[in-house]
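Fold this complex.
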Amino acid sequence: MEYYNNDPYFEEELEQFNDWYKIEGINKIKELSRQLRTLFKYKSEVIKFRYHSTLSPTVNHTNPTFLTLKQKIETLTLEFIKLLKKIKESAQTLEQGILNLFLNNTTLLKKLSKITDLLFILIHKFSEDRPHRQPNYLKFVIKLINYLCLVKKCLYTQFSEFFEELSKNYKNLEEELTQLSHKQVSFEEVIKEKILEERSMS
Amino acid sequence: MKTYSNVSRKTVREDRIAICPIFGCESIKRVKPLKFRFLGFGKYPKCRKHRIPLVYVDERIGDFVDAALACFFDKAGLPPNDLLEYVKSQVPDEITSFVEGWVYCITVGRGAPIVSRYMDTISNTYLKQLTKKQIKAIKRGGTSKPNLVNKAIKSGMDEITFQYTRVLKHLRAHSEVLTDRQKLQALSKNLQNYLKEWQKNTLENNKIIKSPENRQEMALEEIKNNYDQILNIGTCRCLIGLDPESKEIKKAKLTAFDRFSAYYEFYTERLATKFTKLDIEKICSENKSVIKVLKSKDSSKELNYYDIKASTSSCKLEAIKDYLKSINWQVISKNWTIQVKGQGSITLNPYKSCSNQNPLYKHKKWLEWIYLNEDLNLSDRTITKICGLKNHKSIRYWRNKFNIQTKEESGFYFNPDGYIDLYMPKTYKHPELNPFGKKRIQRREHIVKMENHLMISSTSRELDLHPYLIGDDNGMYYIKTGCIVHHINYRKRDNYIDNLWLYASNSEHNNTNINPCLSGLIKLGQILFSQSNNKYILNSNFDYRNLESEQIKEIIKPVEFF
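Structure:
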């Protein structure tokens, strides 16, 4: 045991671990797998949005749970944007601004970290609520995630590579959704095709 | 086979974490060195459930990701031959969109979402290895004694983070390199129905689903074939907009972990090979050449209007050209000779494509027929493309020269009430407003959008049963006159479908509880009463969102009387 106690390398490692553990906390250690799960959820939802042809008219597309969640996300996003603007005022880039906070303004840093976490929790929730039914909102959320990833990347340097990669994946999804929404389908064509297909099937 | 470090309390020098090698099994244990190198039980820790020796987590976690990636990107995951044969013969125009769509769905279809669940389990159980004392000591920071468990946990966690990033990198490569999003298109109903049937048949014939006990008697290749069938069903389900896991597979209790365990075996036995972009291109090009042959064989066959409508947009132009060749032009006009400046008289051939030598658009009857045909409903620009011209103005020039009137086109205008009104075509035969289609009526855009949305997203039966809709003889459905389409955000021109809500009547619409909300805003000072014009106005100099939530609650709470 003494051997390990005197090992300077191990001392340094332990310090790093303590910092890392303090930052992440016991409940947040699952965050990475949760992030991956949410990404897959959104990916599956984009696939569904692309290929799902029939949605039941009885299911309302603007259900109360969704609206409450939407409202919460929007309120927090407003706060988040205000904070980012404030941070960017004092630095050239957003990343630089966030890194400066570590030295200058820890209260703002804590606030930013708290809002980011809260937003991610809401976004995780939204991913479970069949978001392909709200494609426009889905696009907004994915755009927001990109900014959140940037903040997370700066806040937790241990996971910077992970969040950078995550952000790139979300950017791809965002591009895909933009393409999908730009695809203008003639309504008459769709209906005629639908009627024709139904007739040919019967 | 990869050899793992022998998990033994005899040989271990520091505390380490070991796990059951079966993917999905949650058995995890802290392996401590023996006291004085000989005192203690369980010298060779085993999984209690599976009765097999444990392996160190940081050595095994990479294998799980290897197996998962081998499963996602295996060549056997590309579209199966029997499906390709069907598409080739029945819907040849959809071959590219089908193959590209299949590749696009492959990761999710073959069980990618399950990867994070396994990682979750490991992270959780990993943390459980820490005692409360250790957690407290770590939280206290600097003064805590160095603990060997910390080092073990950290190295494992680092490995997990690395493996997560690895999965993400592969996923990105899949969507950036292997998938061509431009070629993705929705599949036709016929193909979708066939895919559903194919799924059923495959499930019925799958030996592993029928009787999982058979697995032990099968050769490894045969097992892989059966597993691939099951995985391909997942991809197929994604392609028709369903969740990848089907009931039958769930019933057979074939979890994704089973698949990854099996795939790890295939991977180590070198039965799984990664597919590349070249493989996808090869499938597409092979099939395209077959389609060309099929088309040349079928050229004698007459095409009809429905064939054109059924074809996809990319092939529509070709389909129209073929359709035009099949028309009996001699009935429409007997004289196909025209006078061209500088060339004298030319005899046109309407059964051939339009070209410089065969300028069909210069023939009055041909142009009149093609432009005014209601079924085809072609614009100047489309006719320009059919004729191989560069500018649509030449078609307009010839139309004017032949006195062919321009077709009525639909338009919109902003209503003084703040809504957008549309001029509907005569085909808009609302049974209550325009039953015979004698005139063109105006209709609010948001109502038309809701009608369109309901018609596209619902089946005919659902539309028939819908209480707020009324149908006409042509199979079109319209919102009844009493119903109200409401703008959720009160912006009258925000006609996105997410912002619209259909109410049965005006009274139901008025009962939206808006008044209590407005009174709240008046109390907050966001809305003010202007005495100069006796109206409520919005206070644009004030934003109630700047107030603290406690303040808002205090202001809007009901007044209590004592």
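Chain A touches chain B through 70 residues (CB under 8 Å).
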